[in-house]
């Protein structure tokens, strides 16, 4: 970006948003490595930001993403189009090294509003995945895993009944734990043993992040009550520690349990879809975060969101049963390349 253009961008957006240091920084930055762009931003996972992306290193008070559905006014619009009072109320974070966060644009040139994930991390799930695939419990360990999950389902069914939106939101708070715990333990193992992980650390952390994005999506359509928050607090304390110890003792059992949990998740989302189709749950517009994360059309609905989330769960099912199978066959995960980017 040349200095003239940079200065005009800064003028256009208003001097209140920037320090003079930031303006100088904009004018002096070379185009490479800049992130706000007009084309070619969507990249496959892990690929670098394109060098031709046009961007600006500007001090810019970016806030967290909207909690509103597509088409609604965005919460973070206030930082750009709000009144002078609103703007002064926003306090920019000043870094001592003078490198503010880069701005990123979508393919259509509009601003990318999510800080927790970038356009090149978004994806379109494979909806053709076999949802009925089931790992038949054969060994004693399989049966323990299978019946543990079946037993866990009973109180869940009693508690939530047919409130599938709430159920999805609550269960995603649990579903995002195993990948993080498994990834953490494999990470520590890699450090202790001076050895590679075969990509499994990253694969499991990807799964955890994907599950957390399910939660970030469902909390837009279902708000937890105080006692549900308390339940999440308690369940997380118990489940995190139980899974941590379980993974230390038997990773093959831990992955098998998650494989069956994912099978149950597919079933729950199928029931969710049935309720939507019957009209018992309102098919509201898809939350904006879902549209960007799964690269969905702007007019997508909650039903479309449930479809892509269910496809994600089917992928998690495959990854975890596969991980368990590797252990069952007497190998370590690092011996088989992890299914990175498997959506
Ligand atoms: Fe999930
Ligand atoms: Fe899952």
From TrEMBL:
Q: Which reaction does it catalyse?
A: 2 a ubiquinol + O2 = 2 a ubiquinone + 2 H2O
Q: Which UniProt keywords apply?
A: Electron transport, Iron, Membrane, Metal-binding, Mitochondrion, Mitochondrion inner membrane, Oxidoreductase, Respiratory chain, Transit peptide, Transmembrane, Transmembrane helix, Transport
One protein family per Pfam: AOX
Question: Topologically, how does it sit relative to the membrane?
Answer: Multi-pass membrane protein
Q: Which GO terms describe its biological process?
A: alternative respiration
**Cellular component per GO?**
mitochondrial inner membrane; respiratory chain complex
The record's section on Gene3D superfamilies has: Alternative oxidase
Q: Name one GO molecular function term.
A: alternative oxidase activity
Q: Which domain of life is it from?
A: Eukaryota
Q: Where in the cell is it found?
A: Mitochondrion inner membrane
Q: Which InterPro entries match?
A: AOX, AOX_sf
This entry's comment on the bound cofactor is:
Binds 2 iron ions per subunit.
Q: Which cofactor does it need?
A: Fe cation
Q: What is its EC number?
A: 1.10.3.11
Q: Which CDD domains match?
A: AOX
Its primary localisation, in coarse terms, equals mitochondrion
Q: Say which family it is in.
A: Belongs to the alternative oxidase family.
Q: How does it assemble?
A: Homodimer; disulfide-linked.
The protein's name in its UniProt record: Ubiquinol oxidase
Its taxonomic path starts at: Eukaryota, Viridiplantae, Streptophyta, Embryophyta, Tracheophyta
